[in-house]
Amino acid sequence: MDKAQSGIYAEPNLHGLTLFCHVMSDDVESLRRKLSRFPAIIQDLDARFSEAMLTGFVGIGAEYWDILYPHKRPLHLQAFPELSDADREAPRHPFDLVLHIRCDRFDANYLAGRTIMEWFGYDIEVAEQIRSFRYLDGRDLLGFIDAPDNPRGMRKREASLINAADDTAFVDGSYLFVQKIRYDLRRWDYLGPEKQEQIMGREKVSGERLPEAMIDGVTHAAKAKLMDKNEQPIPLLRQNMPWGDLREQGLLGMYFSHAPKSVVEWLKARYYADEQGQYDPILDYSQAVLNSSFFVPSTRFLLENRELPVNQEDGSTD
What we know:
With about 325 residues, the protein is of the alpha+beta class.
């Protein structure tokens, strides 16, 4: 039976550690075997720190997938789209792997990170490291409740995980888009609560949508709603967490879905101005400084593909 990696649809935690990595070794056989052990290592760490609710996942970069698993590829796996319109842009940053760990204890998160890095050894190099955290009662650093329309309960699995109707070879895997977003909090704070609510389209305390009669112009809530142009639901689970220190700060946006084309259209609807010249107004106060896409396979896929037949190592077939 397929089983999703624990960090995909886990409940929110207090601390997060995300490592964007490049593979430094040509020994893909060894790397596949090490990747197959990743979910078990996370499970062992979770048992050791049971009160910390430790979860995690490993994702393989869209550009690196064919090197690691040349015999089969997720149907809709693609590089992060190049988004650029006027002064709004999200340049692509390809990485080979993403390793993510999350739990309710900072020390356990740190130890888990060290354990994982020791396991991979010199096979990988960390290109970007992001420590994230839960802020207040699940808000982002702009002061608003983050992703208030996120799916809940079993709908998390339905939105994020591939089922047999999507792709039989990758059941319980998930497509992942990641954005490291930097906020301009000085400009944002200067606006004041009323103007901020107008931009967000929501009440700051409750997160409820503002009545249409109170809205002047386009809002983030309207441009980032989880409905496509045909008013059909977009299957998208956001597992975002704030990051930063007193010099710079922002949001680590992680978007999981079993239908990545819908997520790409959702991103484009926010970045590209429509016929009325309207785009997501929150982009005037933020900048996406890292943008990458991955596939997070099921634990079964990692185990069953830890060793490939010799004739498939170079991508050839019988």
